[in-house]
C-alpha cells in the first residue's frame, strides 16, 4: 500500500500551488493529474492576475511562461454590426502585484507542476481519481479502482469545475445548469509582429478585451479576446441554462462571434489552430460546496472560486491563492494534532487572509446581476443607438447629447423604474 | 528453537517484451522507402502486452512475481515502466551497443542467457510475434536454448496442480495442452484486453529502482555470438506496396441516369455481373 501525507487531485494552478506549499512544509505529497501532462486538459480564457503567484513564488517572473503582459484593457458592447468600446491604457497595469499576463495552460501548468516537483512533490499523470477511499465514514485516501487505493491523511480536491470527486465526497450536490456556464475558446495563430502592429503593442505587451451584448447573441454571458505571443485566444462564456432553453449550439454562437466585424478586424488572416470547451462555475460564493471536512480540502474551480463581475474574469489567481491557503491550513492542522474537521476549519481563515473568500463575497451579487438578461440585450442596444445618434452627422440637424440619452432611455422597452433599479443593483454588485 | 516452515516461493513469470513504433502512427519514408523510427511514438509490442496481461491475470489468481525482460536501447525504459505501472513487479533491460543489429538468432540467445541469470523461473511468456518484424522466432528460440517445453499461439493459460494448461489456436480449431513447468508460451495477439496502468503502479515506477540495466558482460553473453555480424538474416531489399493509379470518374446529372451510367460502366469493366 502506497502512502502519502497528502494527495492532491488535479495538477492545475490550484492543485500545483497546494502541492508546492505542502511539499515545502514537509508533507510527503502526491499530485495526481488525469491528463497525460499538466495543462493538456486545462482550459481558461487566457489571462492570469499575478498577485497570488507573487506570494507563492516571489521570483516567478524569472522563468514563468508568460505570453504577454496586459497593458491595455478593453470593454466593448456589440450589436449585430456595431461596437461601442472603452479602452484603458496604463503602465500601472503591469507593475508589481497588479501585473496580469496572458498564458497558455499546457505551458503554464507544466511550469507550476514542475515547481511542485522540484519542492519534492511526486507528480503522476494519466490517472483520474473519482472517489475518496473511506472506511466507516473516515477518509483514508483516494480510490482509483478496485485494488488501487493510495493512503493519505489529507486529500486536496483540485479537480476543476466538473467536481466529480467533490460530489462523491458528499461536499456538494449535483451540478444544476444554472450553476455552470460553458466556456469555448478558439486559438488563432498570427505572427507576433502582426499582433504587435495590429494591436499597437510592444514585444512583450498584450491587450485584453471583453465583449458584451451581441457577442453572446443576447444570451447571458460575454466574449473575450486575449493576445498571446503568436496566437489570439478568442471565445465566449455563456449560460448553459440559456443555451439549453434557446436550443443554440455553443459552436454556432462562437462562429457568429468570430465573424462579427469587430472581432474580424483583429483576427483576420489568422488560422484557427485549436478549439476547446470547458465548464465554468458561475454563481460565485453562492454555489460554493463545503470547503473542508475531516481529511479533505477543496480548492480552485472545484470550490467555485471564480469571479466574473462583468469587467474582470478571475479564476487562476483565486485558484493559486486557495492552493496556498490549503497548504497553510494543512500545516496548522498537523501542528494542532491532525486532519480533523475542527482543525481544518482554519482553512477559512487562511482563505480570508488571502482575500479569496472576501472578494468572492464582495462580488456575490455580481453573478445575480450578471444573470439579468437586459444587460446582454436591451442596454447594449440602447447604448449603441445613443452612440449612433451622437456620432452620425448627416446634415439633418443635431440634437443635444442629453436629449438623445433622455429620448433613448424613455423610448426603451424597459419601464423607467426597472431601469433605475438595474442601474442601482449594477452599481452595488460591481 | 522453532522449526520454520519450508519457504513457499511464489511462481516467477518472466515476460519478454519489445518496444515497437505505434502501429497506427507508422509512416514510410517516401525517399528511402523504409519505416520511419525517429519521432514516432512507441508502445509495447501489442502481442507482448497480451502476454503481460496473461501473466498479470495469473498473478491475480495465484500470486506470482512478474519480471519483464527486454533487449534494446535505454529508450525501452518507457515500455518497461509502463509494464510495472500495469502491475509487473520489476524489469530487466539488456542493453549494450554490441547487441545492435542482432536478428532473431542472437536475440533468442542473448535473452535466454539473461533469463538464466534472472533464474528461478517457472513460466516464460512471449508475444506470438512483433508488429515491426513479424518473425515469431524469438519465443521458440528461447525455449530451444533453455531446453523448455513450449506452447505457441496460446490464448489462455491456466496453472493447475503445478502444471501449465493452455489453449492453443490451431488452424482448424483450438487445442488444450498441458506441460510441466518451467515452460514457455507465446501468446496470441488480441486474446485479452491489457489492463491500464494503475495509480499504485505509477507511484512504484516514480519511486524508482525497478528497472535494472544489464550489459552483455553483466550477463556473461559471448560478444562473438551477437550483433549485426553474427546475424544470419540479410535484408536484401524492402519493398512497399504501391497502389496502382485509379481512374476517377464522377457521374453527374439526373440521379437515375447517373446510376444507370455507373452500372453500365461497372458491367462493361467486369467489376460486377448481372
Helix content of chain B: 25-40%
The average pLDDT value of chain B, as a whole number, equals: 90
| Poorly predicted ranges of chain A | none
What is the radius of gyration of chain A?
A: 23 Å
Count of β-strands of chain A: 19
Distance between the termini of chain A: 51 Å
The shape of chain B, in one word, is: globular
Summed over residues and divided by their number, the pLDDT of chain A gives a mean of 87
Biggest interface between chains: A-B, 16 and 8 residues
Low-confidence regions of chain B = none
Please tell me about this protein's structure.
The complex is a heterodimer of chains A (430) and B (274). Chain A has 430 residues and is α+β, with helices and mostly antiparallel strands. Chain A is 36% helix and 28% strand. Chain A contains 16 helices and 19 strands. In chain A, the strands form 3 sheets. In chain A, strands 3, 4, 5, 6, 11, 12, 13, 14 and 15 form a 9-stranded mixed beta sheet that branches. In chain A, strands 1, 2, 7, 8, 9, 10, 16 and 17 form an 8-stranded mixed beta sheet that branches. In chain A, helix 14 (378-391) runs antiparallel to helix 15. The radius of gyration of chain A is 23 Å and the shape is globular. The N and C termini of chain A lie far apart (51 Å). Chain B has 274 residues and is of the alpha/beta class. Helices cover 28% and strands 24% of the residues of chain B. Chain B is built from 7 helices and 11 strands. Chain B has helices spanning 46-62, 77-86, 104-118, 138-146, 199-207, 216-219, 255-268, and strands at residues 11-16, 19-21, 42-44, 64-71, 90-94, 123-127, 150-160, 163-170, 173-180, 183-187, 211-214. Chain B is globular, with a radius of gyration of 24 Å. The A-B interface holds A 1-2, 30, 32, 122, 124, 126-127, 129, 142, 144-145, 147-150 and B 197-200, 202-204, 206.
